[in-house]
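Consider the tokenized backbone below.
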């Protein structure tokens, strides 16, 4: 009975947090500037092209040569930060805001160990994770296992955030797909650099929440075995935005007006176009569901070594329902699901040890 009550508390806390953060009118909602017009059309075509590709296609990825600077150094470890030009297709670079053209990484490594005797895991950002700090704290204790940590700053986040964007609330639907596609391309290039330039023995890719979705995609597309660790991640962005807490943080009326303008005389005001078109909020939700279905990880190929894939879900997650996590395991036979007790928000703070153990175990399976 106590565990049931605690589970309910975690679930309710997720919704209280979501209400305070997303249902209040204090901040700008997601997609307040609409769908993204021609950018969305481009992204839909490019993301669809991922699915039929063989793993060896588009490989090797665009090479990166980060420019490094040392942040600090001790007798046992070293933290460097690097900058490199995003490895996206030129069409995507044109679509990205200028602030996102240069990628930034933090690289935490043990000293006195050669790379071929080490592993390295690339950590991808969850929604709202604008800095390196939280992911470095997650990876720091892994130094004793000779596991290095590379943290990638996503487009639209941190120093790559557009000047007009407030916080993590992306302005257009196309921004979400751009963020994902650019993150995948950059992460693939970093894994290639780690293996072929830096000479690391084993590699992994991980992320929490949105970062977990991107990590699953990168692990799926990698042509050689790589430890793949999606933490607290749904099988698709449809889940949080159309079914979960983020649906309360989405500018549905702005999306409706933008859709109406696209189908009416462009000289009409958005309000007039929305009234004349007869487009309903439910139709807008169906359209967003269709667009975000492009992020469905179950449509991606099974990774080269599914035994090195460990999903970690929370038992009482108010953002990501249990069935969404199980969809991932069902799509990738041989993968493992582990459960931590708690909700989405509380698990970020309470279960870092469980995430670290999953990283160590997945790397051991390579």
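A designed sequence for it:
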């Amino acid at each position: 009975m106590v565990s049931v009550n605690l589970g309910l508390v975690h679930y309710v806390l997720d919704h209280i947090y979501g209400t305070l953060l997303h249902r209040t009118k204090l901040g700008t909602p997601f997609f307040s500037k609409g769908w993204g017009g021609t950018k969305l059309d481009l992204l839909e075509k490019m993301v669809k092209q991922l699915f039929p590709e063989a793993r060896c296609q588009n490989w090797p990825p665009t090479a990166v040569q980060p420019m490094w600077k040392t942040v600090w150094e001790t007798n046992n470890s070293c933290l460097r930060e690097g900058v490199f030009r995003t490895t996206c297709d030129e069409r995507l670079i044109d679509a990205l805001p200028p602030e996102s053209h240069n990628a930034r990484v933090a690289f935490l490594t043990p000293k006195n160990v050669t790379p071929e005797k080490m592993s390295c895991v690339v950590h991808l950002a969850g929604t709202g994770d604008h800095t390196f700090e939280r992911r470095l704290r997650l990876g720091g204790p892994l130094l004793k296992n000779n596991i290095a940590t590379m943290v990638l700053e996503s487009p639209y986040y941190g120093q790559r955030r557009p000047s007009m964007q407030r916080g993590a609330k992306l302005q257009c639907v196309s921004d979400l797909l751009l963020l994902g596609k650019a993150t995948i391309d950059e992460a693939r290039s970093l894994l290639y650099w780690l293996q072929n330039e830096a000479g690391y023995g084993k590699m992994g890719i991980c992320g929490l929440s949105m970062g977990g979705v991107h990590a699953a995609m990168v692990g799926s597309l990698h042509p050689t075995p790589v430890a793949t660790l999606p933490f607290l991640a749904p099988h698709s962005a449809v889940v949080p935005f159309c079914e979960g807490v983020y649906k309360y943080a989405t500018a549905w009326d702005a999306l409706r007006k933008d859709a109406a303008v696209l189908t009416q005389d462009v000289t009409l005001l958005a309000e007039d176009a929305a009234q004349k078109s007869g487009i309903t909020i439910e139709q807008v939700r169906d359209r967003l569901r269709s667009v975000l279905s492009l992020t469905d990880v179950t449509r991606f190929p099974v990774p080269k070594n599914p035994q090195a894939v460990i999903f970690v879900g929370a038992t009482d997650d108010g953002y990501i329902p249990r069935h969404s996590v199980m969809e991932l395991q069902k799509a990738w036979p041989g993968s493992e699901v582990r459960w931590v007790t708690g909700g989405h928000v509380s698990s970020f703070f309470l279960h870092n040890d469980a995430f670290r153990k999953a990283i160590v175990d997945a790397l051991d399976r390579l």
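The longest helix spans residues 173-196.
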